């Protein structure tokens, strides 16, 4: 079941390791140098005012650090935030038995030493996706899209750190073209 949520973002749950995946794309013909002001809004409410405020403020702070100015009226760019969560399952198999090597015996798959036993458990975790779209406020053209995906923790502090990390990665070379290519 999908539902919008942005507390989104991103952490490690239990022993399952999920690497944060951040991607960006932008309109190569857009003149980011002409953009000086922005407004940031929630594209779709995920019904958690606390996390909406945290994510909005994190993205706004990052863009401000990049030289843009946040305004309430007549911005050059409109930043829309979207989030989604999805439950996923992970299978973990543990082997035991005689002969070592995962219970398969010292001579490999067909070797002597017995097959041992295998126990598989299922764990469920929530993956969150944060989408940051930046539009030209006048033409309504999409200029930039950043996405970040990772697991959500049940600990708010971990999610806050993951949102900060996602924002830093997403806007590392922002605005596009600001870093010289090597």
The low-confidence parts are 1-17
Proportion in β-strands = 35-45%
Number of strands: 6
How many helices? The count is 2
Structural class by secondary-structure content: alpha/beta
Largest sheet: 6 strands, mixed
Q: How many whole angstroms does the radius of gyration measure?
A: 22 Å
Shape: elongated
Would you tell me the overall average pLDDT?
Answer: 79
Sheet with most strands: strand arrangement: 1-6-5-4-2-3
Distance between the termini: 44 Å
Instruction: Report helical residue fraction.
Output: 10-25%
Oligomer: single chain
Note the run of SSEs as H and E.
EEHEEEEH
Short description:
Helix content is 18%, strand content 35%. The chain has helices spanning 49-65, 156-170; strands at 21-26, 37-42, 69-70, 77-96, 117-136, 142-151. Strand 5 (117-136) and strand 6 (142-151) form a beta hairpin.
Layout of strands and helices, then pairs:
Elements (H helix, E strand, L loop, with lengths): L20 E6 L10 E6 L6 H17 L3 E2 L6 E20 L20 E20 L5 E10 L4 H15 L12
Parallel strand pairs: 2-3, 2-4
Antiparallel strand pairs: 1-6, 4-5, 5-6
């Amino acid at each position: 079941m999908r539902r919008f949520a942005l507390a989104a973002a991103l952490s490690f749950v239990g022993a399952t390791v999920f690497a944060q995946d951040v991607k960006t794309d932008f309109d190569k013909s857009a003149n980011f140098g002409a953009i000086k002001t922005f407004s940031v809004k929630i594209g779709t409410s995920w019904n958690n005012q606390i996390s909406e405020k945290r994510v909005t403020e994190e993205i706004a702070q990052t863009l401000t650090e990049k030289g843009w100015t946040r305004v309430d009226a007549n911005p050059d760019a409109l930043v829309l935030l979207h989030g989604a969560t999805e439950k996923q399952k992970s299978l973990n198999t543990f082997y035991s038995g005689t002969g070592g090597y995962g219970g398969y015996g010292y001579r490999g798959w067909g070797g002597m030493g017995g097959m041992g036993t295998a126990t598989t458990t299922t764990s469920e975790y929530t993956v969150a996706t944060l989408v940051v779209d930046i539009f030209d406020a006048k033409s309504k053209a999409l200029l930039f899209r950043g996405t970040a995906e990772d697991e959500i923790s049940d600990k708010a502090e971990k999610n806050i750190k993951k949102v900060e990390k996602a924002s830093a990665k997403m806007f590392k070379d922002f605005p596009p073209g600001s870093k010289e290519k090597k």
